[in-house]
């Protein structure tokens, strides 16, 4: 029997990469995505171009805010596995339009949980974020750490969605796995994210905007490793667990710029800017729990991941508009 998976946000960066992997493994995949204009929808269309040719792939164009649509989709779905990745992402944009994050990231998640309850979904995997750790002096971040102070509306929305997931498990017994992703990058990455933006600017000989002194550090997770974490979560289902999906190594912002410039064989020009509201100084994942309970084992060092991203960027860029 072919196992069926419903992926919300399935045409996005992580979602489309996951869909491709699941199809390769023989799953039947239903992709739900609204192709919003948060960034050029043509990028998402390109993301799923290959999947659309697969007999086990079904695309549903629609919004997780549309309850009638969700009822229609779930009424035809066999109640198997839901991987909920649909969200408005980004720390800085959430400072400008926090209401949108409440609408999509919180209310949309509740909508998905409601239909999952009604149609007796057997497994629910939620894509959260390292942003929920907020201002955390304990390094590395562990799943058992207190998460009392998020510093952006995006982070608050993700934490609120986590709490709703836990509540729905408690009330209705839905088996739920929450995955906190740490700065995922790689082919198909959103154009507003640092590695994509820096690669584009350096390729065009333009200066790099660097917020703060360049000492901020991030735990960068290559897309294949992140997808592996999701797949492991399907294979080893738990009643209610939270897992960090990271690389457990930090890279300083100045070092990241240097790696990209080196791979492009250019000398970076830095545009020094003040620190941004909503950003934290460091993220670093303790992945010992994910290693132990999921068998998660990230294997892509940052230098190798950057090389793969640049190769994809060069090959894909000619098919997109100059502003993509």
CATH C-level class of one domain: Alpha Beta
CATH architecture of one domain: 3-Layer(aba) Sandwich
Task: Give me the count of strands.
Answer: 13
Strand and helix order: EHEHEHEHHEHEEHEEEHEEHEHH
The total count of helices amounts to 11
> What integer value in Å does the Rg equal?
19 Å
CATH-derived topology of one domain:
Rossmann fold
Q: What is the 3D shape?
A: globular
Q: Which class best fits the helix and strand makeup?
A: alpha/beta
End-to-end Cα distance, whole Å, is 41 Å
Major β-sheet profile: 7 strands, parallel
Poorly predicted segments: none
Query: CATH homologous superfamily of one domain - what is it?
Result: NAD(P)-binding Rossmann-like Domain
Q: How would you state the average pLDDT, rounded?
A: 93
For the biggest β-sheet, the strand order reads: 3-2-1-4-5-6-11
DSSP strand content: 15-25%
Q: In which range does the helix fraction lie?
A: 40-55%
């Amino acid at each position: 029997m072919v196992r069926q998976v419903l992926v919300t946000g399935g045409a996005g960066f992580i979602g489309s990469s996951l869909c491709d992997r699941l199809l390769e493994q023989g799953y039947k995949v239903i992709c739900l995505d609204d192709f919003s204009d948060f960034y050029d929808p043509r990028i998402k269309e390109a993301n799923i171009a290959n999947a659309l040719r697969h007999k086990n792939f079904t695309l549903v164009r629609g919004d997780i805010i549309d309850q009638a649509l969700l009822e229609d989709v779930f009424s035809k779905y066999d109640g198997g596995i839901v991987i909920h990745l649909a969200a408005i992402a980004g720390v800085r944009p959430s400072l400008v339009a926090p209401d949108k994050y409440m609408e999509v990231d919180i209310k949309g998640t509740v909508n998905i949980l409601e239909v999952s309850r009604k149609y007796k979904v057997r497994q629910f995997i939620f894509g959260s974020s390292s942003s929920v750790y907020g201002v955390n002096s304990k390094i590395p971040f562990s799943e058992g750490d207190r998460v009392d102070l998020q510093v952006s509306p995006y982070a608050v929305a993700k934490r609120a969605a986590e709490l709703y997931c836990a509540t729905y498990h408690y009330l209705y017994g839905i088996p739920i796995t929450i995955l906190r992703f740490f700065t995922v990058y790689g082919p198909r990455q959103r154009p507003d994210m640092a590695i994509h933006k820096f690669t584009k600017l350096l390729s065009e000989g333009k200066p790099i905007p660097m917020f703060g002194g360049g000492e901020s550090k991030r735990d960068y997770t290559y897309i294949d490793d992140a997808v592996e974490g999701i797949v492991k979560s399907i294979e080893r289902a738990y009643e209610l667990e939270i897992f960090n999906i990271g690389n457990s190594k930090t890279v300083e912002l100045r070092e990241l710029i240097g790696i990209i410039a080196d791979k492009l064989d250019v000398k970076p020009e830095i545009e020094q800017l003040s620190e941004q509201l909503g950003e934290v100084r460091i993220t670093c994942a303790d992945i010992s729990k994910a290693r132990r309970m999921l068998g998660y084992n990230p294997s892509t060092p940052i230098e190798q991941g950057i090389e793969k991203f640049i190769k994809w960027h060069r090959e894909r860029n000619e098919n997109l508009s100059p502003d993509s």
